[in-house]
Amino acid sequence: MNLQEISDRFEIQDAVHQLVRGFDRRDWHTVEHLLADTVVSDYTAMLGGEARSRTAEEQTRHYQEQLDPLDATMHAATTLLVDLDGDRATASVNILTWLRREAAHDGPLWSNGAAGEIELVRTDGRWRIARITVRPAWAEGNRGVLDPAH
């Protein structure tokens, strides 16, 4: 492994960790800055629906609309492995999530563990997230915390 590959791996790991920290700190500027101009998000195995392609601004707004109503969130990205392929990369990561909304019927907490595949592209000298795919390993608690009407 050469110095560029080592540097790339650290930058990719930082991007993944900054993303989940951005969620929890509600740092939407950082989240948007980490995303490619077009990003595909695929949470279908966890939340249903369909994979969506959005601009970085639209995807950030989507995250904000889902997470801002919550009282607290905690995301942890662990066991991160990076596959490099020139200016493209895939980060395989385990993601642990705790979402809390005190006013939710049927309990205030939903937690889950998932396997994530995060595809990145090097654009203008920096790594940006182009696709996020999340597949659940387990979940417990009240998924209704994500529904403000619940």
TrEMBL record:
<dbReference type="Pfam" id="PF13577">
    <property type="entry name" value="SnoaL_4"/>
</dbReference>
<dbReference type="InterPro" id="IPR032710">
    <property type="entry name" value="NTF2-like_dom_sf"/>
</dbReference>
<dbReference type="InterPro" id="IPR037401">
    <property type="entry name" value="SnoaL-like"/>
</dbReference>
<feature type="domain" description="SnoaL-like">
    <location>
        <begin position="4"/>
        <end position="132"/>
    </location>
</feature>
<protein>
    <recommendedName>
        <fullName>SnoaL-like domain-containing protein</fullName>
    </recommendedName>
</protein>
